[in-house]
Amino acid sequence: MPSNSAEPAGPRNDELLAAALRGEREAWNSLVERFNRLVWAVARSFEMPASDTADLSQTVWLRLVEHLDQIKEPERLGSWLATTTRREGIKLLRKRSQEIPDEHRQEQSDQGMDGPEEHALVADEYAQLRDALAKLPERCRRLLRVIAASDEANYSEVAAALDMPMGSIGPTRSRCLERLRIQYTQSS
Description:
The protein is mainly α. The protein folds into two domains: about 15-95, Rna Polymerase Sigma Factor, Chain: A, CATH 1.10.1740; about 105-185, Arc Repressor Mutant, subunit A. The protein has helices at about 15-20, 25-45, 50-65, 75-95, 100-110, 115-135, 140-150, 155-160, 170-185. Helix 3 crosses helix 4 (about 75-95), helix 4 packs across helix 7 and helix 6 packs across helix 9 (about 170-185). The protein is elongated, with a radius of gyration of 21 Å. Pfam families: Sigma70_r2. This is Sigma-70 family RNA polymerase sigma factor. Belongs to the sigma-70 factor family. ECF subfamily. Keywords: DNA-binding, Sigma factor, Transcription, Transcription regulation.
């Protein structure tokens, strides 16, 4: 008689986690096989380059290795992995949003912005913007960084990345941008 259970075939998560903790390679391989699609789906939702998506996926599996003995609810391992992927994805987007792409440096150079005065002005503007951003509530900083880090910010993906209702992204974004504008103009 077929089972209607949502439980995956094979060993339970708690059995696999215990075996992986003992160093059993097959248990680890089974965990990766069972949850790899989930990790990749959440990682791809950030719409990063393939290399960053692969790095994010590897980071998540590394976090599982680091916390293998701390998983208290093995039946919720999928949720733990999805949440960890979102958090690590946000960290990666923040890191990337603070980097100035080489093509932007080239555009500045092409526009004659390669003298020390121009660099000082740009650095000052970036510093003012960073200061204004730092004065915003954490929720606004996270939202604006995730949106800024994506070339084509899709609200459903932003909502998933930040664990926010999709309907609140637009209004929250507008309020946050207004707060940022006020902070920036006050510091100028």
